[in-house]
Each structure stands twice: as C-alpha cells, then as structure tokens.
Specification:
heterodimer; A: 474 residues; mainly alpha; 23 helices; globular; B: 514 residues; alpha/beta; 6-stranded mixed sheet; two-stranded antiparallel sheet; 8 strands
Chain lengths: 474, 514
C-alpha cells in the first residue's frame, strides 16, 4: 500500500507546474476569486502558505488525489466483504493500484481541485451508507461528506440524490423505524441543499454549447418545414423536439463510446486527447468485472441505474461529453476494472501465456501514457505565451497598468494577468482584439496586430508565429 | 414456404424494389466522382474494350490513382447497351444488387438459423431480416448510388449462403467459391475480410468439409482462379494494383511509428462500437440522410435484446455471427477515416439478424401476454413515425441539404459550356474542383475512342482533351482576351464571373469567368 501511495504521489506531483502547461480558468477562479466554497478555502490556504505559483494552485488537488487513492483501499475492502471476491487484502490493493495509475484520476487530480475534493468526499460518503445497519446514527452522519462533496463540485449532487433514492427504496422499513434520525438527516440535507433550491436554474440550465445547438436545431426545423411548403406533415415531422431528442440521445451515447473512454478522450479541456479516461487494457478488465458482477443482481442493477442516471443528467446539461461530470462513475469503474484485473491475476497459474500477454499490453499502455503525458506532449498554448509576456512585464516594468488585448476568445484573461503579475485586478484594462485603441500606453497583444513602427519591448518565442504575443507601446 | 410467407416475401421484395428504383436517377441529386469514373470507364470498355488509361479489359481501374476494382464497370456495360450513359444507368447495377441482397438475406438467415438446431421461428426471423434490410437506411443509401461495396456485400451474402448449403450438398460449394471470388474483385475491404472469414468458417465446419475429401478440390480450384490476378500483379511488379488504395488509406502510412499505428488501429476498431454512429449521426455526409444514423433509432432496444439472445446462444450460430462482426470491422479499422459506413457495409446482414432476433422475441412475448399490447401499439406508432421521417429526409430533404456533398453542379456546368463552347478557343477547368476531367468526359459523353487517341488519362494531375484543359489556374497569368472560358472553384482567384452555379444551400459551386 505504501508503494502504491508513493507511485500515486509521484504520478500526481511530477512536473506539476509544467504539465498541463497552462492553468485552467477554473483553477484560477478557485484560487483568486473570493468565494465561500471548500475548494476556494483550501486553495487560498495553499497560496497563502506557498505563495502565488502554479505549484501552490495545484498541490491541494494532488494531496486530495493521493488521499482518494488511500480511501479507495477501504472502499474496495467494504465491497470485497459484501461481494466476497476474496478473503485476503489483494483485491483492495488492486483497486488502489488501478486508481493510482489511472489517467483520468491523475489528470483530474492535477488540474481540478473542486472535482478532486468532491470525489474524495463522495467516496467518504459511501462508508456510512455501508455501515447503515450497524449504527443508526449513520443515517445522519452520511449527510456531512455528501454535502461536502456536492459543495466541492456540483457534479456530485446527482449521486447524492440517487443515494437518497436507493436508501428510500432498499431500506424503507429501516429508516421508518429510526424516524428521528431520518428526519434529522432530511433536515440537514435540505439545509445543505438550500442554495440550490434558491437558484434551481444552476441544476437545469444547459451550457452555452448545448444552448447554441438547441437554437440551431430550431432553425433547422423551421428551414425544413419551410422547404416542405409548410405542409401539416412536415410541421409534425420537423418539430424541434424531435431533433432535440436526437441531440440528447447523441450526447448520451457520446459517454458510452469505448474509443473515447479507452483510447482518446478529445471532448473536454481537462483531458489530454492522446489518451482515454482509462487505459485501453481496462476495457478487458471492465468487461470481465461486469461479467463477474452479473451474478450479483442487486449490485448490478443498482450500478446500471446509477451510471445511466449520471450520464443522462450530464447529457441533459452539456453539448459535449464532460469527463468531470462523469466523475461520480469513477469509483464504480475502478471497482469493475479491479475485479477484472483480479480475474486475470487469478489466471496466472493456469495460463501463464495469457497472463503474461495481458501484463505486457498493460505495461505498454502505461509506458505510452507516462512518456507522452509527462515528457513528449507539452504543447505551447496561447495562455502560455501571454504568461511569458506577463512575467516579462512583471520582472522588467513592475506592476504598471497595461492594456491587454485578449485574443483567447472566451478565457478569463484578467485572472491570468492577476496571477502572473501578482498585481491588482486588471479587468478594466483588458480589451478584445476588435476593441482597443492606440493611446500611447503599453500593450500586451498578439504580434500580428502590432502596427508597424510601434516600439516593441518583447516578443514571445512560439513555434507557431500566429500565437506569438508581444509587448509594445502603441 | 407457406402461402402467408410467400405473400410477405413478395410484399417485402416489392417494397425493396420500390425503395431502390424509384427516382433512382435524381435521388441522390448528383453523381459523385467515383460513380462518374465507374460510369465513364464502363462506357469506354463498351466502346473500345479499354479503360480511360487505355488498358485493355482491365481487372483494376487505375482511375485517378485509387485503383478501383473493375467488376462494377463490367456489370454496367450491358446496362449501357440498353440505357443512355447517365445517373439512372450508372446506379442501376447497385440497385439491382441491393434487391438481390435483400432476397438472399432471407435464405442466408434461414440457413444460419439451422445452426441453432430446431429453431421453430426461423421463417419469421428470416422474413424480419429481409424486411429490415429492405427498409434499412444503411442499405438503401448504398444501393441507390454506384458503390462497389454494395455489389461486394451481395456477392458475399450469396457466397456465404451457398457455403452453408454446401455443408450438406457439395455442389453448392462451387457457387460459394465463385460468388466469394467475385466479392474479392468487387471492393477493397472484402479482399481482407472474405479470406479471414472463410478461414474461420473452414475451421468451424472442418468436420463437415473434411468428409467431402476430393470433392473439395474443384471448388478450391474455382476459388484459386479468382486469386490469379492478384498473384499476377504481385509477380509482375504491379503490386500497387492490389495494394495501391490500401497504401493511401491505411493507418500505417499515416502514422509516425508502429506504436502509434497499433494504437490507432485499436482506437479505429472501437470507433465502430458506437451507438452514436450507428443510430444517430452516421459518418461522412454522403453515407447517410440528413439528421439520420445508418440504422433506425427504434431498432436500438431490439438490437440490445438481440445481442443478449445471441450471447446466451450455445450453438455455432453465435460463433459465426460474432466472428462475422468482429472480422468485418478489421478492414475499416486499418484505415484512417473511421468509423466508415462503406468499409463496414459487409456487416449489415449480421446486425439485422441480431435485431430481428430481438424483434421476434418481443413480438412473440407481446402476442402471448396481451397486457403488453397497448405499449406495443404505441411503439409501432413510433416505428411508423421513424419510417416516415427517414423517407421524408432521404427522398425529399437530402437533395436540398446535401447537394454539395454529392458534388452537385457538374452537369449544369457542362451544359453551360456545351451551349457556349462555340465562342471560345479553349476551355480551362480548375483542378481545385475535384477530378473535373472525369465529370466533363462523362457529361459530354466524350467519345472514348477519340479520348484514347488523344492520349487518354495521363499520370499527371493535369489532363486535356479536345479544347479542354484541366489544371491549376493562376488568374493573373491566364489569357483574358475573351477566347478562353474558365471554370473555377469558389476558392480560385478570379475577376467578375459571367455565370455562377450554386448548391441548393445557396453556396457557390462553380464560378464561370472569361
């Protein structure tokens, strides 16, 4: 276990300030914007202790990630006792090992503190649920980690709601028997959920991409009806709800695409598109795990309903698949993968060739991930170029106000400016590429926009010239 | 066949014929470059016995460097004796083979279900497969355009059916060998799939086959005859005739290392295991109707149920169907553009068989437990709605929305040129338009004898015949004295156009300028 934790720590900590090369907007928001959330509190503490740096921003996520790996041991142990996989401690160790090297968890631990914390508390929540019948006060206790989970990140709200549903269904007589604890638990949960009741749109509002797709669908439907001469048939056939249903179905299926899950998750910014959320060899393990789980009907059914509910809700809100919104499924996937891995491990005495082959493939997958993720793939990014310019300016010109011409189209550059220059909030000095003027002030801007004859102080060294950012007085 | 079965069989057949022949020349809106190339080469073979490159009775058409199997063009030759060179004629062999495929899917399913032992629902499952294939968006899409893969699939269905029959009556093995042999010369992906699958079948049914002894020799010789051209090309240093297309599309030639290629193959293989691709979006816009997948959404529950039924099966039926699917994905996985509905077309019957197992299981359950009749009624309404929506999208909306993907506009451009060519000494067509020379040869019905006497198709990017030149156009360096008519792509540099041909979506297709 110690070795596995050591590996987990190394994989989460190695080159933490360089891989991923740029801080995500969400990381900076958590670190710089004053808000009363658990991730924000943790991050502020880290910045206070370690100073303003990428390392300080990302370290809490790493620590929480390693703690989650440790927690996985105990979770797998609980499940082991219930499913009777094996008497000794091999299975929990497998689960820990699988999570420690999992590309999905490694990448999230390194870049999203909120989700990392949420996952930690979410797994913590499962223990009181497992001990439900041993101690009646667990009916109340589970609410605390549950609330911490969904307040760390909203993606963990749905699993909590599902947990309430499962408890009500499977333990109805038990919770009725201990009604005082149940009432207390409901009141506590309701109190923690109050912010969401006040603004339920947080839970139901589609993201920008989905909103755009829905608008496009409406236009498409109108065009089709119009091309069909506004016939009654066409008005029924091309109701926007039909195209929207297809979109919803398409979004749902996107989460189940094996090539994305196991080879190339190229759908959101948090994941390196060269890898899936899992290693390719995990597909084999998960299938074997599912085959094993099929015999445990209740667990299998609950798992299936749980996965479907998580995915359907995520697809309902987002225009493209989001690895973070799939995160509540991770512990279950790790258990399944471990079950499968365990099956293969058991094979080793009977069929050495198969075992050796699987180990070889698994090693190949891991080496590939380690090589590409940590060493080869470290692409320059536009934010990285801005970062260099901010750092240059901070070193050479102090914290003088400058105009920043934003060519990122949608990233919150003011946060980056504030972080890299450790200066005041520069929001008022940031202009879009189409909206700035030559007023004699210092400008940080794409070099292709710098007019001829302007005094240039600095140009970044991007390989792609179009990405170069310069500092000039216009 | 009982009378009811015969009636249903005939009804489904008529439906298949209607869905494949009705308005064939106009839907899809235009012939694409492959269809045109197949068409003109068939025309050239008919008139001269040679293809556009001057190769006498070719087995492989070099075409524009993609080395098309020539079988489709040969099937087109007799059609061109009856019909004019045009959309309908070029697509007719594919449509006819599509219909034959629907017919033989019935017989193939019947034979396959015999592997399950005494399976009493075989006729109804077979009819369901036939129906599903008759109305299949995937099959209709490729039966209504000149896609070689459709011909290959039908040859494979016949060959596979004959193979299963041949396990009881060896005479059918001759037909099997011939039909599978033809499938090798019909499309690229069958060249890999059919041998792999055949080896698997031989392994599974080795006991039946070995019992035939010397009787196997003749079918083996027939099969070998079809391989001779491949050996001939390989031994005469013209391997590109066999592997030319593969080398253009394979992941190996598009990867930096073996490691990357292996990873891409794994990824490509799994990309086909995508419900999104199958049921909602499809792939290339030329491979499906607007807003449609390649299977109906309503088939999904039956498909999932069918898989569960298949996995529980303990007979050779399961092995055969699973190997068909698993091996059928191999050729496409080795290529770059995945998932790919044409390269995996060979899988259609297997998927429809799985779906049919689910449909029949549900139908029988509903029939027994009358309580489910109401939900079944609503689901039938949903299925009916699915059909109407798909047919409206395919037969009505597709031409309007997808004209650019079907390379619309060449016919109009050639008509314009033909009406005005007296005024010009030279007509220059931009190579930025995709392979324009073959479209002009086709729509002008340019005499193949004359074309070949002028040198035929050259091995360069620039082509010419008569007063036509096909090359890159540098607008500033061209002659602009009114003696040259230029047919340009919208992305070409140019002055004020004298005529513009547009797609139905309003975008520019061709710019005509002096």
């Amino acid at each position: 276990a110690g070795t596995i934790l050591g590996v987990a720590l190394f994989l989460r900590l190695y080159r933490i300030d360089q891989v991923v090369p740029e801080l995500f907007g969400k990381e900076l928001e958590v670190s710089l914007v004053n808000s009363i959330t658990i991730p924000s509190f943790v991050s502020h503490a880290s910045l206070y202790l370690l100073g303003m740096s990428e390392f300080a921003v990302r370290l809490p996520g790493v620590i929480v990630g390693v703690l989650t790996v440790a927690l996985m041991y105990y979770l797998a142990n609980e499940i082991n006792q219930r499913l009777m996989v094996r008497k000794d401690s091999f299975f929990p160790l497998f689960a820990m090992g699988v999570l420690s090297v999992l590309p999905w968890h490694i990448q999230i631990s390194r870049s999203d503190l909120g989700v990392s914390l949420g996952l930690f508390f979410f797994i913590l929540m499962v223990f009181p649920l497992c001990w439900f019948k041993q101690n009646k006060w667990m009916i109340v206790v589970w609410v605390l980690p549950a609330a911490a989970a969904f307040h760390a990140d909203i993606v963990f709200l749905m699993p909590v709601i599902l947990a309430v549903g499962f408890i009500s269904f499977y333990h109805s007589s038990y919770i009725r028997k201990y009604w005082i604890q149940t009432v207390l638990s409901v009141a506590l949960l309701a109190a923690f959920m109050m912010p969401f009741f006040r603004s339920p749109q947080i839970l139901l509002r589609p993201d920008d991409q989905l909103t755009y797709q829905l608008i496009e669908n409406t236009k498409l439907s109108q065009e089709r009806v119009s091309y069909s001469m506004n016939t009654s048939l066409s008005k029924v056939l091309y109701l926007p709800i039909i195209e929207n249903s297809k979109l919803f179905l398409s979004n749902t299926f996107s989460y189940f695409q094996p090539h994305s899950l196991f080879f190339s998750w190229d759908k959101d910014q948090y994941m390196n598109p060269n890898f899936g959320l899992f290693y390719p060899v995990d597909l084999l393990f998960i299938l074997l795990g599912l085959a094993f789980l099929k015999k445990k009907k209740t667990f299998f059914t609950v798992s299936l309903i749980y996965i479907l509910a998580i995915v359907l809700y995520a697809a309902f809100l987002h225009g493209s698949s989001q690895s973070t919104w799939l995160m509540p499924v991770l512990p279950l996937a790790v258990i399944l993968s471990s079950l499968g891995f365990f099956r293969i491990f058991e094979l080793r005495a009977r069929n050495k060739f198969v075992f050796a082959f699987v180990v070889l493939i698994a090693s190949f997958c891991m080496v590939r991930f380690l090589g590409i993720y940590y060493i080869v793939e470290n692409k320059e990014t536009l934010i990285g170029e801005y970062e260099e310019a901010f750092v240059y300016l901070a070193k050479n010109k102090g914290s003088i106000p400058v105009v920043v011409v934003d060519s990122t189209y949608g990233k919150n550059l003011s946060l980056y400016s504030r972080f890299f220059r450790e200066g005041p909030n520069d929001k008022e000095f940031i202009y879009s590429v189409n909206n700035y003027c030559q007023d004699g002030r210092m400008h940080i801007m794409p070099t292709y926009l710098i007019p001829k004859g302007a005094q240039i102080y600095y140009i970044s060294q991007a390989q792609d010239e179009k990405m170069n950012i310069g500092i000039a007085r216009l | 066949m009982k009378i009811l079965n015969k009636i249903l069989f005939t009804g489904i057949l008529l439906l298949a014929v209607f869905l494949r022949i009705w308005n064939l020349g106009n839907i899809p809106i235009s012939l694409n470059w492959d269809e045109v190339a197949i068409g003109y080469n068939a025309y050239s073979i008919l008139k001269t016995g040679m293809d556009e490159h001057g190769v006498r009775f070719p087995i492989v058409l070099e075409s524009f460097g993609d080395f098309k199997p020539a079988l489709y063009s040969y099937l087109l030759v007799p059609v061109l004796m009856v019909f004019d060179l045009g959309s309908f004629a070029v697509r007719l062999p594919s449509a006819v083979f599509g219909i034959i495929g629907v017919i033989f899917s019935y017989f193939l399913t019947k034979e396959l279900l015999k592997l399950r032992g005494n399976y009493k629902n075989a006729p109804i499952v077979s009819l369901t497969v036939m129906f599903l294939l008759a109305v299949s968006p995937w099959h209709i899409q490729f039966s209504r355009a000149a896609f070689e893969a459709n011909i290959a699939t039908t040859f494979f269905i016949i060959g596979f059916w004959a193979f299963l029959l041949g396990l009881k009556r060896p005479i059918f093995l001759f037909l099997s060998a011939a039909s599978l042999g033809f499938s090798l010369h019909a499309y690229h992906s069958t060249r890999l799939f059919v041998p792999l699958f055949l080896l698997f079948l031989i392994f599974i049914f080795r006991e039946n086959l070995l019992a035939y002894g010397k009787k196997l020799l003749t079918p083996a010789i027939i099969g070998f005859l079809f391989l001779i051209p491949f050996f001939y090309f390989a031994l005469t240093g013209r391997a590109e005739m066999i592997f030319g297309r593969a080398s253009q599309t394979t992941v190996f030639s598009n990867s930096k290392s073996l490691n990357e290629a292996v990873y891409k193959i794994g990824e490509g293989y799994l990309k086909h295991v995508s419900l999104k691709w199958l049921f909602v979006t499809g792939d290339n816009d030329r491979h499906h109707a607007p807003s449609s997948g390649i299977l109906y959404i309503w088939e999904l529950p039956f498909f999932i149920l069918g898989i569960l039924i298949l996995l529980r099966d303990k007979s050779k039926f399961k092995l055969v169907i699973l190997s068909w699917i698993l091996l059928g994905l191999v050729p496409s996985s080795l290529t770059t553009e995945v998932p790919h509905a044409i390269r995996t077309l060979i899988l259609i019957p297997s998927l429809q068989i799985i779906t049919a197992l689910g449909v029949v299981k549900v139908a029988l359950t509903v029939w027994k437990k009358k309580i489910l009749l109401l939900p079944a009624f609503f689901y039938i309404l949903f299925i009916g709605f699915g059909f109407i929506l798909y047919f409206h999208l395919y037969f009505y909306q597709m031409n309007h929305e997808y004209s650019r993907f079907w390379q619309f506009g060449y016919s109009d451009a050639v008509s314009y040129v033909r009406q005005n060519d007296q005024k010009y000494k030279k007509i220059v067509v931009s190579n930025k338009l995709e392979q324009p020379y073959i479209f002009f040869l086709f729509f002008l019905r340019y005499d193949p004898k004359l074309y070949l006497s002028e040198g035929g198709t050259r091995k360069t990017k620039e082509q010419a015949f008569g007063k036509y030149e096909f090359r890159n156009i540098n607008w500033k360096e061209e002659v602009h004295d009114g003696s040259v008519l230029n047919i340009l792509s919208p992305s070409d540099e140019r002055s004020e156009p004298i005529h513009t041909i547009r797609y139905f979506d309003g975008g520019d297709a061709f710019i005509i300028a002096e």
